[in-house]
Fold each of these.
Amino acid sequence: SIKKSRLIVFEGTDGVGKTTAVRFVRNILESDYGIRAAYLKGMGSNNFFGRLAKRFPSTALFLLEATWNTLKINFLREEVILMDRSYLSVISHWPEVGSKLNRAIIALAKPLLARLCRPSLAVYLFSDLDIQLKRIAGVEYNRFHSAILANPRVIAERNWRMQKLLNEFEYPVVKIDTTDIPPGIIAQTIINFLKL
């Protein structure tokens, strides 16, 4: 049987299949195990803070959005919360996090967010860079993706920063290379990890 893992966080850079994996995992939990699961975007949501952060992108606004979405977890009634990105995505978002101001904001916010966001499991998805770039190029245009396509080295830097953060993480982390694996197999791998 599945351990009741209240919060499962999905991390990874753009184009690795986070949202697809979340949808597949949610479907399996609900259809095969009868476990109600909520889908929650930690970043890129359509609530007030998410729309504000999209319109005026800044580390402070994205952290505010992540904080708000993390607080929402306490009000959701589903047995499992599947979060598509958390504050870890914000604080590994190179090059924005490199400025002195943003480093100071992160230094203040990180301890609070680490206390608020306490997942039972973090799922880190990664992929071959060429495959990732093809996936990004194939989705609906947005300015964040166009910036990545203009400078693919950004992905490598963000991946390195995320790996460093996950190595400091005190919760279980499963890392999955999504390069040539169908979404259903990725989801089943995550489900199997939840059974341990």
Amino acid sequence: GAGWMAAGLPLVLSCLEPAHPNYAQILAGYRKMMAALLRWRRPNGFWGQLVDVPRSWDESSATAIFTYAFIRGVKNGWLDAATYGPAARQSYLALVAKLDADANLADVCVGTDIGATGEHYLGRDKVTGAPHGQAGLLLCVNAWLAPPAVERRLIWSASAYGEADESAYSADTWPANAAQLKAAGFTDVIVAVGRG
């Protein structure tokens, strides 16, 4: 849902130069979405399982993803720090309060397929420790700890491009590729070769 877009927009912005022809449009869309999310954020720091339905319950995975998007926006100067910073902090602390003794995040909506009615979504179960909730909270932690200036990063994955022969990215050929990528402006190059 909306969480994937909220998480994806800061990632796209961090990969584009401000001079890119689509940068301004993407930044405007991101800011518009963040402003809408701020309006629907609840006084306790959570968002509802259905963001714009007040009777829906406080949902942790969406809250984590939206909080991550706020943190990234503030740290990169895309969002006003005085407005979004306190909101991000309150939401993050509200999420931390939902961790159990084993650091499993509570009140995460189970994975949900597309439904025809709002009731389909409102009736979903809450779980603790679901991977999509844990991942959202880890994104928040990473965003808090990351330096303010985001470097452009590239993850090369042979499997992502359907390469049958992973030796195409062996130690023998990778240094030349890395040099080309760094020359193109990538400041950090990470190799992820393998399936998945």
